[in-house]
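Run Putative bifunctional transcriptional activator/DNA repair enzyme AlkA through structure prediction, thanks.
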Amino acid sequence: MLTIHDFQQARLTRDPRFDGRFFIAVRSTGIFCRPICPAKLPREENVEYFTLAQQAMLAGYRPCLRCRPDSAPHSHAWNGVDTTVNRALSLLSENLHLSMTSIAEKLGISDRYLRQLFLQHIGLSPKQYQVYEQILFAKQLLQHTQLPIEHIADAAGFNDARRLQYNMQRVMRRTPKELRKKPTSNMQPIVIPLAYRPPYNWSHIRDFLARRAIPGTEAIDKNSYARNFTLGASKGHFHALHQADKNRFHVTLTLDDLTQLKPALNNIRRILDVDADSVTIDNQIQQSGLDPKLITPGIRIPGIWNTFEAGCRAILGQQISVAAAINLVTKLVANLGETVPDEQCQQIELTRFFPTPEAVANSDLSFLGMPNSRRETLRRFAAFYTQHPDAPPNEWLSIKGIGPWTVAYANLRGQSHADIWLDSDLVIKKQLTLHSIDANKVSPWRSYLTFTLWSQA
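Sure, done. The structure for Putative bifunctional transcriptional activator/DNA repair enzyme AlkA is below.
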């Protein structure tokens, strides 16, 4: 947990490693900023600190138009404080259109208890948090894209431009038109910066993804990663260009349903793991006893677009090499993946989407050169997923042919859980014979220890 002294030192040095972990509000101006804001440093007696942007907004402060707090890396400051609160924060951030009743139902608690938890741990109601999240997202779209205001209102969950304008004026004291700097255009793509806290080991995540990239669906070069994706009934494409000098990715995205824009961006954040606090994680890995020379600063979890794709990759990769597994995944996509229409194709080499669970479940998979028992496992898994798309991977253990390793892999890369320790993995087992490690001392960041050991193989 950061102290006031940490806040002060990070503010005075504009340390990018603390970007998004807290915000600085200036009483004399009524504005709050990121620690990296290039504006003249205010006096300490004029400063107030907040761990969430929404807390600063509740206190009456407006986000800085120069450093743009809405573009800061997300923070996991509430991890370990209350699991339900942390899950609620994620749901509210990812689902700007959901009611509080729906959020409470997903959490398995009552509306009243959800409100009590938020007031106790955060100091504002869940509805207030959601509205501020909507405003920050709308502000980001207004300042970084050319989307019409009506489309931005829809994407941010306000349903119409009048509600957006009312809330923007109430909190920002400016209208959407006053915030907009770029001319309006109906043209996609959408361009959004995704900032991260350094260090960020791009070469590790790039090379890991490159070895496992699906031709026709994913593309990777020296400085970027791109892929086609589906999100519910919507389809899209993104290209993420790494800009190391700016500690961010420059993301270009097309999407046929703007109500899914926030979930799509959140998923891109997860795949690239831009919100990880690498300094804290690297320090924790050192507690394991691993030789510090083997710890690569800024290692991240390379994600997979969703748990279905992660499950398919894990099943197809059972007991074979990475190259052989990708060959099977490539055949699966080539035979069952929907083709991208020519007019929607954003990169000439990206022509297919990953197959749907229905397509896999209804195929005999005879084109896959592997034991029939594994084909049947894949079909059973796809059929299960079709009926239970929101079931956590742990429930897959009821499917014949799926064991703990497959579930752990899906949790690790399909959901980017931070504390997955794959000690049953053959590569990890070999590494453990070479190094004396106490993985429990790395909790809750054992996923990063898993990738650290994989990188040594």
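The first strand starts at residue 23 and ends at 26.
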